[in-house]
Amino acid sequence: MAHLINLWFALLGLGSNKLRSALTTLGIIIGVGAVIIIVSLGNGLRRSAEKQMEAFSSGTVEVRPMGGYMMPMPMPAPTAAPVAVEAVKRGVVLGGPIMPMYAQSLGLRDVEALRRLATSVTAVDAQFETGARVVWRGRYLPMGQVVGVTPEFLRVYRREMKVGRFFTEADDEAAAPVVVLDEGLVDMFFGEDVNPVGETLYMTVQSVPQAFTIIGVMGQKEGAMGFGPRSLLVPLRTAQLRLSQGSRGTINMIAARVDARASAERRYAVAQINTILRARRGLTPGMPEDFNVHDTLEYSEEMTRVTRTITMVLSLIAGISLIVGSIGLMNIMLVSVSERTWEIGLRRAVGAQQIDILLQFLAEAVLLALVGGAIGLALGAVGSYVVSLLVQSLKGLVWLSLDVVLIAVGVSSAVGVAAGLYPAWRAALLPPTQALRHG
């Protein structure tokens, strides 16, 4: 009952000067609102980065030859005039030297070993990356990379076909001149809702043009923007036999699908792949690997760490306004104690204890801070939502999570206690007779 009485006196004290109470909360509102917006947008940026990285890599583990490879990619000038298809057929369009150079190589036996023995892997795709000048509908495609893949590609990268079909084992065995395009590539350069299935494009390598039939378009993954390096696909043997200028029996990347997202489980998968390939390639203990195993989600983890650091720094900067607001709150509470000295003496005279006076003024400070925190939380939520609508990459990724709400409540309470404790303590120490003489 005594606590309820103290709370009632606190509410009466705040209500006696509404304008001052409202202005006192302004600093808390601004500080909490700024922190909420920054934390919410920081979380949205982190989710956006994770989503884009997931769309780009699908959480694969990549195996490449040690030393990598160099492959000049011919990029025609954006202002170049359309290329006549007849010129391509006559071999007039020169592809330029595209010479992959590999320090080491991978083979299909490595792929089979991973498929049979890697228990942490759900699917494996062998890839051969090469280059060519590509002409479609009389126009250069603004890319020079062509990737030969197996039918497992869709499982490894969790992709689905939008129209048409993907490669079959028969296409791969026959080295068929067929190609699958990415939806992002089609939409960006030839317009949306274009269905190119059945049309012909030409790939030129070392001045030799070859006609390829488009058999399908892959749907773009959610979170992906534009087109990526695997936007133009052909069967693996097609790339090796028709578009390669080097060794025709090798591959230059293995993509392994690892569904686990926990860091420890992914590190285990990387270690398992490394162990299997070392044994398969006859590498004894102490011998260095002639291949490199890389988890593509490491980029996502690094981006997440960077985003969190930036969010923390900006939140600390925004928290300066909270410090200013708490100083203003403390100042107002000290003024309030001075103005209400007689009230304090009267309450003490009728039986109130020092703890009652302390709790009354402390409750006033905490109530002011909580009201400011609640309004700041609401403004921060609205501000975050508006910003997420303006930034396309954050759309649907910014919302008030439980941790953000706890931050608002916790910070507001802490500011109220910190700013009100000293004034409340001073009020509680006033002798009743001295306080009554001020009336």
Number of domains: 2
- Poorly predicted tracts of residues: 68-85, 88-103
* Rough outline: elongated
Helix run count: 14
Order of helices and strands: HHEEHEHEEEEHEHEHEEEHEHEHHHHH
SS content category = alpha+beta
Assembly form of the protein: single chain
- Gyration radius, to the nearest Å? 34 Å
- What integer is the average pLDDT? 78
Helix content: 40-55%
How does the major sheet shape up?
Answer: 12 strands, mixed
Strand and helix map with partners:
Blueprint: H1 2-15, H2 18-57, E1 60-65, E2 69-70, H3 85-90, E3 101-102, H4 108-117, E4 123-131, E5 133-136, E6 139-140, E7 145-149, H5 153-157, E8 161-164, H6 169-173, E9 178-182, H7 183-190, E10 200-205, E11 208-218, E12 232-235, H8 236-242, E13 253-257, H9 263-280, E14 291-295, H10 297-339, H11 341-349, H12 354-390, H13 402-429, H14 432-437
Parallel strand pairs: 7-12, 9-11
Antiparallel strand pairs: 1-13, 1-14, 2-3, 4-7, 4-13, 5-6, 5-10, 8-11, 9-12, 10-11
